[in-house]
Structure formats: C-alpha cells, structure tokens
Amino acid sequence: MSISRNLFALNAELPPHVTLVAVSKSQPIERIKEAYAAGQRIFGENRVPELLQKYAALPKDIAWHFIGHLQRNKVRSIIPFVQLIQSVDSFPLLQEIEKRAAEEGKIIDCLLQVKIAQEETKFGLSFPEAEVALNEAVRFQHVHITGLMGMATNTDDTAIIRQEFCSLAQLFQKLKREFPALHVLSLGMSNDYQIAVEEGSTMVRIGSKLFGEK
Ligand SMILES: *Cc1c(COP(=O)(O)O)cnc(C)c1O
Predict the structure, then answer these.
(1) Do 127 and 161 form a contact (C-beta atoms < 8 A)?
(2) Residue 203 belongs to what H/E stretch?
(3) Cα(196)–Cα(14) distance, rounded to whole angstroms?
(4) How far is Cα of residue 87 from the mean position of the Cα atoms in its chain?
(5) Distance between CA atoms of residues 129 and 153, nearest Å
(6) How far is the CA of 69 from the centre of ligand 1 (A)?
(7) What is the pLDDT of residues 104-138, one digit of tens each?
(8) Global pTM?
(9) What is the homologous superfamily of the domain 3-211 according to CATH?
C-alpha cells in the first residue's frame, strides 16, 4: 500500500475529533514528502537532531510534534521549531521549557506524559505527579499544558491495553474539570489506536501503519 492510500484509509476511519499525528521518526525525507503531498501536516519525531534536520528540509507549514524523551539540554534547540511537546515526563523538564520559551518570547504547548504501562522502561509521570505538575504550571507564562499523553504496555493482551487507556482517560476527565485548558488526550499507536479511540483518545500517533513496517 502506498503512503497516500494508507493516509486516506486512516483519515476515513478516524472520527473527526481525533487528530492524526504521522510519526515520521527514522523515515527519509522523500517518504515524509509523500505524506505531505497527500495532505498530512502534523508529524511526530522523537530525536532532536532528526527533527532539526527534517524541519530545515521540509515545508514550513508542517506542525512538528516532539514525542520522545527530551533531555533538558536539548530543549533550547527545538523551541523555535516545535508546535507541541507531547512527552513532558518530569517537572524539571517543564521548568526548562518555560525558561527557554520565555527567552524566545514563545508560548509552547505541552502534553504531560503519564506512565500507564507496566514496563519499567517507559518514561512518564505518575498520576499524582501529573496533578502536582499541573498545579505548579499554573504560574508558568510560556508553557501551556493542553493535555496528557500515554503509551500502553507492548502486549497482545488487549484487555491490559484497554484498562491502561481507560485509567488515563479517567484521570483526564477528572483533571479537565479543574484545568479547563486540557483538551488533548494523546493515546494510541499503530497497534492499539482503535482501542485508544474507543477509550476517548483525541490524538493518535501512527508510524508503521502509515509508512509501512521498517
Ligand atoms: C514510534 C512511536 C509511535 C508510533 O509507533 P507505531 O507503532 O509505528 O505506530 C507513537 N508514539 C511514540 C511515542 C513513538 O515513539
């Protein structure tokens, strides 16, 4: 299947309130151009050098999302180029984004990455940490927390995946009452986005199902 056909099929399948982020990490420029030509404008990258290189090479109306673990010393270099940082996984990182965005005179939209998977290796805030971060961030003028992001356990057991998505969707609904700026729930990748959408996702991050398996 071609990228444009995959994109067409995904857009036909996803409900209108769900935003598709094309995860273009490790994809060459030519393949991203194919998705762009087919209308896709939001792309996700998880490595800073790759994001900077692709930003420079591709049309400037692309909205770039950062979706990987972000080191604090790399924040400054992406501030001018990124539309949304989906992977804020610590409060010190949020403070650094505030500081660097202030220097640039920008306001950066961020999602808090919340840990829902069982795996030890996944980055993310605990539920209480996410709530504390939201309360603390109220005084920040240059970061705007617009939602939450989560990644389910990498398993074939769909009951586990659904339960993890559901738990974050419940936290999202609860926090939304206190923080009305929250409106993005970024849940779901190629293998689990259908479950994520059923559980209330408003943003899916899809790589292999769009660009093909590597
Ligand atoms: C790679 C990646 C994705 C996309 O994964 P696919 O299985 O290829 O769709 C989504 N989110 C994050 C954070 C990723 O690192």
Answers:
(1) no
(2) strand 203-206
(3) 11
(4) 6
(5) 20
(6) 12
(7) 999 999 999 999 998 877 689 999 999 999 999 99
(8) 0.97
(9) Alanine racemase (3.20.20.10)
